[in-house]
Amino acid sequence: SLGAAGGQLVGADIARVGRVVSLRISAVLVVAGLMVFAFAPSFAWIPLGAVLWGLGAALGVCASWRAPLDA
Predict the structure, then answer these.
(1) pTM, entire model
(2) What are phi and psi for residue 52, nearest 5 degrees?
(3) By CB neighbour count within 10 A (0-12 exposed, 13-18 middle, 19+ buried), where does 42 fall?
(4) Do 53 and 6 contact (CB within 8 A), yes or no?
């Protein structure tokens, strides 16, 4: 999906920003996406919430995949 593709593109910048910061950004995107998705005033807002939710989830997965490489 669009969120997963965006997460893969941003995943390369995780090492530059840091894993803790990227996981915090991921959490903020997931919560923001869920809030927009759940409390959307109209149907037109639901795709935006889904994209934010997907980007946050994909970024979190990318950060968690790269974490064992440091060990």
Answers:
(1) 0.75
(2) -60, -45
(3) exposed
(4) no
CA distance 11 to 40: 28
Q: CA nearest 6: which of 70, 50, 43?
A: 50
pLDDT in tens, 26-60: 899 999 999 999 999 999 999 999 999 988 888 87
Which tokens hold the place of 1? 């999906």
Tokens of 13: 């910048």
Q: Note the residue count of the chain.
A: 71
Burial of 50 (0-12, 13-18, 19+ CB in 10 A): middle
The structure tokens listed for 57 are 């989830």
